[in-house]
Amino acid sequence: MAGSGGLGGGSGDGQGTGTGQGPPLRAPRALLALVALVLGAYCLCALLGHCPPAARAPALAPARIELTSLARRPGAPGLPVASGSGLRRFPQALIVGVKKGGTRALLEFLRLHPDVRALGSEPHFFDRCYDRGLAWYRSLMPRTLDGQITMEKTPSYFVTREAPRRIHSMSPDTKLIVVVRNPVTRAISDYAQTLSKTPGLPSFRALAFRHGLGPVDTAWSAIRIGLYAQHLENWLRYFPLSHFLFVSGERLVSNPAGEVGRVQDFLGLKRVVTDKHFYFNATKGFPCLKKAQGSSRPRCLGKSKGRPHPRVPQAVVQRLQDFYRPFNRKFYQMTSQDFGWD
């Protein structure tokens, strides 16, 4: 199946054929062993990725900023949170998932709002860098004025078992945004991104199933992420459903203003970002932002967004649709929202 990368953005242009560029290995087992070694090293590097550096405060900042109005955030005893103007705060809202669902697009759309200040990079604090401590995490955040909302997004939080407990410890009042997308399309987009970074991977089919078209391999992260109902169950142990907003990755493409409007309502913000801010880019296959005042051209997401997906046989797509259907329906029931994937 060929398709646009959409907001999640497939990064690979090649076909998932499972062949490398060098001479063939003598036995299939040798090829699989080599691929397993490469994938293992890639995943290890990703998991052990560098934590972002803490922001360096200007030399005169302590003298200029009054620290008399420090409040304490529930769940973080002993750690003061600045409530004065122009100070760093813990995020009041987090985009916690999911990978290749459209999280980057949503963040960029929200950053148009004057009352949203968001960290541009993914800090990975609650999954990879938690040992750095909450004070370090807060030092990463942009400075905000009273009435502004601090946000960050790290899509891997949604599938990290420890993340809900850790976020709840920071603040049980945190608002949580989850961008979800048809799990089959999402998995293919995930594979396309990995393929662009690791050429010569086996085909999507070989990774998605054990023994040809045998059982679906839920050990593969591209498949496991799409089990939204299972991941949400873990989050609901710590946060009530009212703390979540589930954004449709498909509607973020077809009706970006509508979905962003829902997010602004959820955050308690005035609907400043509207349809006047968007236009549809037919080449990329998803909406882009119209040029801002003082800018010379419109702004779209980067080159890795909107590339074609590798071709996947329809039989493979159908098998995965059948596999995900009961999980999708449970997710619909849990969220009281039908995303129309079946």
From TrEMBL:
<feature type="active site" description="For sulfotransferase activity">
    <location>
        <position position="100"/>
    </location>
</feature>
<feature type="region of interest" description="Disordered">
    <location>
        <begin position="1"/>
        <end position="23"/>
    </location>
</feature>
<keyword id="KW-0325">Glycoprotein</keyword>
<feature type="disulfide bond">
    <location>
        <begin position="288"/>
        <end position="300"/>
    </location>
</feature>
<keyword id="KW-0333">Golgi apparatus</keyword>
<keyword id="KW-0735">Signal-anchor</keyword>
<dbReference type="InterPro" id="IPR037359">
    <property type="entry name" value="NST/OST"/>
</dbReference>
<dbReference type="GO" id="GO:0000139">
    <property type="term" value="C:Golgi membrane"/>
</dbReference>
<dbReference type="InterPro" id="IPR027417">
    <property type="entry name" value="P-loop_NTPase"/>
</dbReference>
<protein>
    <recommendedName>
        <fullName>Sulfotransferase</fullName>
        <ecNumber>2.8.2.-</ecNumber>
    </recommendedName>
</protein>
<keyword id="KW-1133">Transmembrane helix</keyword>
<feature type="binding site">
    <location>
        <begin position="305"/>
        <end position="309"/>
    </location>
    <ligand>
        <name>3'-phosphoadenylyl sulfate</name>
    </ligand>
</feature>
<dbReference type="InterPro" id="IPR000863">
    <property type="entry name" value="Sulfotransferase_dom"/>
</dbReference>
<dbReference type="Pfam" id="PF00685">
    <property type="entry name" value="Sulfotransfer_1"/>
</dbReference>
<keyword id="KW-0472">Membrane</keyword>
<feature type="compositionally biased region" description="Gly residues">
    <location>
        <begin position="1"/>
        <end position="21"/>
    </location>
</feature>
<keyword id="KW-0812">Transmembrane</keyword>
<feature type="binding site">
    <location>
        <position position="189"/>
    </location>
    <ligand>
        <name>3'-phosphoadenylyl sulfate</name>
    </ligand>
</feature>
<keyword id="KW-0808">Transferase</keyword>
<comment type="similarity">
    <text>Belongs to the sulfotransferase 1 family.</text>
</comment>
<keyword id="KW-1015">Disulfide bond</keyword>
<feature type="binding site">
    <location>
        <begin position="100"/>
        <end position="104"/>
    </location>
    <ligand>
        <name>3'-phosphoadenylyl sulfate</name>
    </ligand>
</feature>
<feature type="binding site">
    <location>
        <position position="181"/>
    </location>
    <ligand>
        <name>3'-phosphoadenylyl sulfate</name>
    </ligand>
</feature>
<dbReference type="GO" id="GO:0008467">
    <property type="term" value="F:[heparan sulfate]-glucosamine 3-sulfotransferase activity"/>
</dbReference>
<feature type="domain" description="Sulfotransferase">
    <location>
        <begin position="91"/>
        <end position="330"/>
    </location>
</feature>
